[in-house]
Amino acid sequence: MNDRIEQLADLMTLEEKVSILSGEDFWSVPAIPRLGIGKLRVTDGPNGARGGGSLIGGVKSASFPVGIALGATWNAALVEEIGAALADEVKSKNAHMLLAPTVNIHRSVTNGRNFECYSEDPILSGDLAVAYIVGLQGQGIGATIKHFAGNESEIERTTISSEIDERSLREIYLIPFEWAVKKAHTWGVMSSYNRLNGTFTSEHNWLLTDVLRREWGYDGVVMSDWFGSHSTAETVNAGLDLEMPGPPRDRGQKLIDAVKSGAVSEATLRQRVIAMLRLMQRVGSLDDHRDFQEAANDRPEHRALIRRAGAEAAVLLKNNGVLPLKGEGSIAVIGPNAKIAQIMGGGSAQLNAHYRISPWQGLVDAVGEERLRFAPGCTNHRFEPVLRGSFRVEYFANQTLAGKPVHIGSQDEAQAFWIGQVAEGKVDPLHFSARLTGSFTPDTTGTHRVGIYSAGFAKVHVDGKLVADAWTNWTKGRTFFEEGCDEVVGTVDLEAGRAHEVVIEFATKDFATLGLAAFAAGIGLPLGNEAIAEAVLAARNADTAIVFVGRNGEWDTEGSDLPSIDLPGRQNELVAAIANANPNTIVVLQTGGPVEMPWIGSVAALIQAWYPGQEAGNAIADVLLGVAEPSGRLPQTFPVRWADNPAHSQDREVYPGQEGKVRYEEGIFVGYRHYDRLGLTPLFPFGFGLGYARFAVADLTIDDAEFEAEGSVMAGVTVTNVSERDGAAVLQLYVSDDVASDPRPAKELKAFRKVQLKAGESRQVTMALDARAFAFFRAQSRHWLVEDGSFTLRVGLSSADLPLSGTVSRRTTLMLPV
Ligand code: BGC
């Protein structure tokens, strides 16, 4: 233990000690000027560093590919590079710690937050998390791996109890956290909102103390998710160091009293304080006394890295030879995601990107506008498009818009997410009202839809008439992290070219869990049959049609799960109609996970491009034109139907949860482990992706000299690029226990390597397996066990393409410590 930290702890008064165990505001822990201790600042990730503002607006930042896109790269070296670049971003926001990476497992295909997480597989998630953390912390910025643990759905997420047996926790859900601690020495862990087997994770002694600290040897800080602490002595005693955000609700005076009454011992308090001081020392905030200043650094090297990573994440799922695009022919650019750049998911991971390149823009820059023709075809939004324009905002220091406004501001869009300081501090952020006045000038005459949803009461008047009312009968829905209502939509007839007055009124209401006030108002004109007909015509008249479909951050978002995995709106109809009109139809899908694809047999090619960050359109154009190789492989199985997914069940307790519980009944059979068990053929298997280059694997060699004594094995394989293009192969090694005494998956990924190979090049690659690669967790005796008997190693290029195999065997069992 280092002397300076011990001495500081000795010098601190009880009040000072307690003060650094809670946030001061949303994004910081208070300084202690008397002792020269600086303020510690955190910022959200994982796909960038948003900075100290609100979720909407704020200082601009670089927007990197989202978690599932990084999962699809299968490239730990690239993820480490991104981690290091993110450290620059965190520094530009004057912060010391990034609230990332997110490593919850893709249990259900409908989890709203899967886009933010890497994979359905713990090993792929774990390896990438380690790389991300090493990259970030190597530059002195702390990681906060989250959400520990059992946060695999957004439904009732702040109260639900995830019922998970210990073996499934150990073998699936805890692995990325365990590796982050043991292999990357993460400095931060964030507890989740949910309960785990009945107890909030923020006060779960077994999780935070027995497993995390005693077994894994963790010496960093555990912080609560925002408003996820629910008690004083219980959280402190269980191992939660920091309550976030501030000002404190469970700590402050309450914790001082708990220490005085003996409910929290001086020794426990000191442990928490030491952990906080150690963190402050690691990230340099202990001696950081700079004035707070945030910068928007749009760096060319970040642009290049994001573009490269976006292309590397792209998974080519089907190609009958139409890709990469060749020649000079005309291209119909179709679909709701063609001109709107879908670069990230929604929720706390969102940020104000430096810029957003749409696929249309990317193609215009790559091939010139003369070859392109655009038709949207249909829409795919969940909410009416946010109204943009200039709004005057009057703020009232009461909840009834009464009297004179205390502050007048302005906004350039009809949405707000008010946290922390509001109206320059002239209103109480949880008790105020506001009126926004602006106008909307439509391009087309017709009946428009006006929508509003709000965490608080809100209504929209157009030309003096109440059109959408989320005030009078406000009911809790699935927006704004479950603090908002569902969208309320009204209709109004509007005239092209005329400025119609729009007035939005808002008032705060008591919040359930998260202290926030927010609303979003939008106006849209529904697209009808003519829009599809126009797109079909464009496709018919072009040599190639590219359809940009998918979802956006309104669907793939924190705070709500997906209602299904159908493409929203009329997109299935659109793709089928375009494929029917043009045999060279290419689909570019942007989602945070699988969709059902009734049209898959009729399209010529399909690329899954995820949400690749601010360079989206450039990365997609690079892949379409073959400037970059789509070397992504699926980090999640794409099932034929939603019903094939492991968490899909008639029993509501299995998903989405019932009476406050969600039971992980499938146990360890998550993702491909489940499809294997039931013999279900997915639409596209885990680890699959075509690329333009082609590869072959041969000559599996196994060195098992240490297997009996240590449980470790080395596997070697030769991989050859058998095509005329340079490219990258993703070698995957799966292990099966041939004579398992406890039920085990048919095979499990245990090692992988991404290998860049020139056309025709061959390389020998080795992959190391340690004893844990062969072990399972025996719940009765609570240890990892490698059984005697034989194990099969399978190597290949996807979970469904494993041509090489070999066996190793051992005579004795091997017990491994937890
Ligand atoms: C999310 C966290 C995030 C925090 C701060 C919560 O809603 O679950 O992932 O870091 O907010 O924005």
- Give a quick account of the main beta sheet: strands, pairing sense, barrel closure: 6 strands, mixed
pLDDT < 50 stretches? none
- Return the average pLDDT rounded to an integer: 97
Task: Provide the spatial order of strands within the biggest beta sheet.
Answer: 1-2-3-4-6-9
Q: Which shape, going by the Cα principal axes?
A: globular
Total number of distinct structural domains: 4
> What is the assigned CATH homologous superfamily of the largest domain?
Glycoside hydrolase, family 3, N-terminal domain
* Rg computed from alpha carbons, rounded to a whole number of angstroms: 27 Å
The first-level CATH class of the largest domain is given as Alpha Beta
Tally of strands: 36
Q: What can you see in these coordinates?
A:
The protein is α/β, with parallel strands linked by helices and about 800 residues long. The protein folds into four domains: about 5-55 and about 60-285, Alpha-Beta Barrel (TIM Barrel); about 315-380 and about 530-630, Rossmann fold (3-Layer(aba) Sandwich), CATH 3.40.50.1700; about 390-525, Jelly Rolls, CATH 2.60.120.260; about 695-815, Immunoglobulins (Immunoglobulin-like), CATH 2.60.40.10. Helices cover about 20% and strands about 25% of the residues. It has 18 helices and 36 strands. The strands form eight sheets. A six-stranded mixed sheet has the order 1-2-3-4-6-9. Strands 10-25-24-23-11-12 form a six-stranded mixed sheet, sandwiched between helices. Helix 4 packs across helix 5 (about 120-135). The protein is globular. About 55% of the residues are buried. The model has no long low-confidence stretch (mean pLDDT about 95). Beta-D-glucopyranose binds near residues 44, 99 and 225.
